[in-house]
């Protein structure tokens, strides 16, 4: 299926978007891409992004989404690690990252401004780049390679494994049912997405809208009042929002929120990051029972789901097992814990094919237990089967729905000659859920200020990875093993908060 698309003031019919997808498919084929190969995408939200997703999904081509804020070094790692053969990239992003494009990776350059008329006149992709369309017979049902955060300083590429032919129909049916529950979209739906498509959750939302042939209202970025305008104008039925967007919507004056008729909303999905209880309560009070939430990961997919009504009965819960998902809470000794006891959360979603970490089989084995996997979250299951997430065992920070791994940032700060030691961790933030903080220990006799650290980091990493709070310490607290005791650094910031992540 192909959706109809609204992008800004442009309206793309299904045939127009299908034509663009076919042209991109032909271009990828001409560049040597085939089923099972990998294509990277570094695009802003745009018709080209949606069409590239459709082209790759139809042909069973793995697609790697790159954050368009990334610098050359970050791009190089992802292209090399994923084995991408082609990078589809907006024209203004090419020069800043050109040094990071490995030899042998072809560029398919998309124009900044694109419209259905341009497709009809064959302006993009260029006619000389086109071959035959890629075959439409994929064996890979979930074709996104998602890079997920970890504690090693480098993200890990999650690649789905092919499904056995005899299991394909079952997996497809279960996956479609999971997506239908989490997102709710049908062919008659009007789905609004203004978060960047390079996030795994937003990519999943857009892909499901494409798969069912809904109308997708895609925005270049999020603006609170414009969101309300779009809901009223297009009679939006389904929307993907994250807690940061909740904050900005609720920050609008009450008279502004009251101006717009948003009663068309049927379901608001939030899956990207934890939501504070008070914030979610205010959204339900405003929007009513349409607010839903799902808990999942790039590795395991969505494993729990909760409606607004259930959440009001179980405040703070992430929901019950979704579909045939399995949940287990495991203690430090490896034993499965009874209801109410906090331990490490292990999950499995049979609707998702098994996965591997690209080139990191030991890491993949390390998170497994009896066919289930853990991503380091701590929590408990109550007597009614509802999951509550209490904390993260890992140091990963989720800011505005974006996973950030401190080890990479710490490595950049440690490379500064004045720095003797550093710890980067998450602290509460009213708008983004979490913000980054850095505790820095300078070498004896050296001086350095926070502004200089920030300036140097901007030359190396994306701006959203730069700590907002930088403090200086004579010595950082350490465990007996020598590891920095980050909990002691985090606790003062989280004191009094109604959540721990």
From TrEMBL:
Q: Which InterPro entries match?
A: AMP-bd_C, AMP-bd_C_sf, AMP-binding_CS, AMP-dep_synth/lig_dom, ANL_N_sf
Q: Where is the AMP-binding enzyme C-terminal domain?
A: 408-483
Origin: domain of life: Bacteria
Q: Which UniProt keywords apply?
A: Ligase
Q: Which residues form the AMP-dependent synthetase/ligase domain?
A: 4-352
> Its family?
Belongs to the ATP-dependent AMP-binding enzyme family.
Protein's name according to its UniProt entry:
AMP-binding protein
């Amino acid at each position: 299926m192909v959706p109809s698309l609204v992008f800004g003031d442009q309206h793309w019919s299904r045939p127009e978007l299908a034509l663009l997808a076919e042209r991109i498919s032909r271009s990828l084929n001409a560049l040597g891409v085939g089923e099972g190969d990998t294509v990277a995408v570094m695009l802003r939200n745009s018709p080209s992004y949606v069409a590239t997703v459709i082209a790759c999904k139809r042909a069973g081509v793995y697609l790697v989404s790159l954050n368009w804020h990334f610098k050359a070094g970050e791009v190089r790692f992802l292209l090399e690690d994923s084995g991408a053969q082609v990078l589809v990239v907006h024209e203004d992003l090419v020069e800043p990252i050109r040094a990071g494009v490995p030899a042998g990776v072809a560029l398919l350059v998309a124009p900044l401004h694109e419209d259905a008329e341009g497709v009809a006149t064959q302006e993009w992709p260029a006619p000389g780049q086109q071959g035959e369309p890629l075959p439409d017979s994929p064996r890979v049902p979930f074709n996104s390679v998602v890079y997920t955060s970890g504690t090693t300083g480098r993200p890990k590429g999650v690649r789905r494994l092919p499904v056995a032919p005899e299991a394909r129909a079952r997996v497809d049916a279960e996956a479609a049912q999971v997506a239908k529950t989490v997102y709710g979209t049908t062919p008659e739906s009007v789905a609004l997405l203004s978060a960047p498509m390079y996030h795994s959750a937003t990519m999943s939302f857009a892909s499901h809208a494409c798969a069912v042939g809904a109308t997708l209202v895609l925005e270049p970025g999020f603006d609170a009042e414009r969101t309300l305008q779009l809901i009223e104008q297009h009679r939006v039925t389904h929307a993907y929002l994250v807690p940061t967007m909740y904050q900005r919507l609720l920050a609008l004056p009450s008279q502004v929120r009251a101006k717009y008729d948003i009663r068309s909303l049927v379901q608001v999905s939030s899956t990207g990051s934890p939501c504070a209880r008070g914030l979610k309560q205010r959204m339900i009070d405003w929007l009513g029972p349409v607010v839903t939430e799902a808990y999942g990961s790039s590795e395991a997919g969505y494993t729990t789901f909760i409606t607004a009504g259930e959440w009001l009965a179980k405040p703070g819960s992430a929901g019950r097992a979704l579909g045939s998902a399995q949940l287990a809470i495991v203690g430090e000794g490896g034993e499965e814990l009874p209801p109410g006891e906090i331990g490490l959360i292990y999950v499995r979603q049979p609707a998702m094919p098994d996965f591997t970490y690209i080139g990191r089989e030991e890491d993949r084995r390390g998170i497994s237990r009896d066919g289930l996997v853990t991503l380091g979250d701590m929590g408990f299951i109550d007597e009614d089967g509802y999951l509550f997430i209490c904390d993260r065992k890992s140091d990963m920070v989720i800011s505005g729905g974006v996973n950030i791994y401190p080890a990479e940032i710490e490595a950049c700060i440690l490379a500064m000659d004045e720095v003797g030691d550093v710890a980067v961790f998450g602290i509460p933030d009213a708008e983004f859920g979490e913000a980054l903080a850095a505790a820095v220990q300078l070498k004896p006799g050296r001086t350095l200020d926070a502004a200089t650290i920030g300036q140097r980091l901007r030359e190396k990493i994306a701006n959203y990875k730069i700590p907002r709070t930088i403090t200086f310490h004579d010595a950082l607290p350490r465990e007996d093993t020598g590891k920095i005791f980050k909990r002691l650094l985090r606790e003062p910031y989280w004191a009094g908060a109604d959540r721990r992540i």
